[in-house]
Amino acid sequence: MTPRSSTMTPTMKQWRQLVLVVMLAWLLIFLALLSHFLDPRDVDLRSPSSLTHTETRRLASIQGSPSGIRASPLEVTSSSSPTNQDPSHSQQGKQEALELSQNGDLVVWKKVSDQEERVYQEREEKIRRERLRRRRRKGSMSRAEQRGRDGYYLSQSKVVVQQLRRGIASAGMLAPHLQKSMRDYLNLNRHHVAYRGRRRGRQSGREVLCELKEQARLRTLDGTEQPFSGLAWDRLVPPRPLEQLWGQGSKFKSCAVVTSAGAILNSSLGREIDSHEAVLRFNAAPTEGYENDVGNKTTIRIINSQDHLLIDSGITDTLVLSSSLQWYRNPDYDLFTPYEERRRLHPTQPFYILHPKFIWQLWDVIQGNTQENIQPNPPSSGFIGIVLMMSLCEEVHVYEYIPSLRQTDLCHYHEHHYDPACTLGAYHPLLFEKLLVQRMNSASQHDLKTKGKVTLSGFSAINCGP
Question: A Gene Ontology biological process annotation (predicted)?
């Protein structure tokens, strides 16, 4: 028996060694798979982004061309999720992107991967296809079905707006398809937005005004930063800053911001709007044929990439281009070449480009005053225009930004397109912007309901001292 026992002993040891080898092999396979899914190069954005704040601000969300430059607000340094990975770690298909240094200068270059950018493009295209599918489905409905669906969405929007007027609306009140769009953009986080700032409790309207005054100072490109300084833009941009255009230290007494919302139709607000000293309008919103409702005075017009053709139009108003997300060398629409040509052809027409830092500072203030995670996309032109006029005016009256009782899903008074996202937001954090504006509002509920009018103090009219 002894020899037999001695022969079995090494066999059992071999079996144990074999089992250990197999277990080790499975462990290595598991770790390889895990590292594949957690690799920052494989940016799949599988979970909603956790918005955190960093001090370094980026202008680096790139798509397409290696020489593209476009603005992205905040550099993400947290390693808690794939969305928060620094794309410069990728070893594939590097692209150069422009960043803001901590003092706001456009001087720091960073690398962004082609692979990451393709993922973003594919996901954005998926969101666009889904919205287009809903529109087509709407077009294929019977009239009765469409009336029922539109009536349901409009009634739901009206409930949200009623709560918005009271300052207590939330994203959970939105229609399901708007909530889904919001989640999609949070997951996508195209611009690598991060927020680590303190979420403030409910500040008073005055406190929010003072925060905006201190944290979101109006700023336009002055041509002294790269790459514009190398192109002699310091001699191309208007010589006088926008806030000094009407005289050193001068402020308009009373100003109007006129949105393009469909609710302004049949408002008969035209005469009141024209009574203000300065009027701001958006993009290609016309006044001809709508004078009774929107007036015809225009002092400043904000345009964006969607209305890039306005650069070549005969408009003579002061133009402000909100282009923080557009590329410099290869934009979706060529903005900068027409800008240069227009400045050379019409050197006396004031034409400014808003600095990306100003736009993303506005986003910071909105998120900091909101307990929910807002869309990690830039604020709407409406909110940008409101704050711009608060920098130029002692008092600002905003029409149909928060809808009156004439509320409709008609996006623009001069177009036939209906979508509740135009009022409550999908891409832009519109709902949260409007909640913040309502908190600062000093107008009565009667003005809000009948005129859709919000009244705000300009920054020069408030004392933010101790």
Answer: sialylation
- State how far the alpha carbon of 234 is from the alpha carbons of 45, 231, 327, 455, in Å: 40, 8, 19, 36
Instruction: State the amino acid at position 46 in one-letter form.
Output: R
- Of 167-171, 240-244, 297-301, 305-309, the range with the lowest mean pLDDT is 305-309
- Each domain of the chain, given as residue ranges in start order, spans 203-461
Whether cis (ω within 30° of 0) applies to the bond prior to 356 is no
Rounded Cα–Cα distance for residues 71 and 326 (Å): 7
CB 79 within 8 A of CB 200: no
Whether the CB-CB separation of 81 and 110 falls below 8 Å is answered with no
CA distances from 363 to 30, 130, 201, 283, 359 (A): 41, 26, 17, 21, 7
Residue 247 C-beta-side C-alpha neighbours within 13 Å: 4
CA distances from 172 to 182, 343, 403 (A): 11, 46, 19
Could you give the CA distance from residue 402 to residue 29 in angstroms, rounded to a whole number? Answer: 56
CA distance 309 to 284: 9
C-alpha–C-alpha distance, residues 462 and 458, integer Å? 7
Angstrom distance (rounded) from CA 193 to CA 187: 11
CATH class of this structure's domain 203-461 = alpha beta
Question: Please, are residues 221 and 343 in contact by the beta-carbon 8 Å criterion?
Answer: no
pLDDT, tens digit (0-9, with 9 covering 90-100), for 92-123: 333 334 444 334 444 333 444 556 666 666 77
pTM of the predicted model as reported, rounded to 2 decimal places: 0.73
Distance CA 260, CA 410 (A): 10
Residue 304 dihedral angles phi and psi, to the nearest 5°: -130, -175
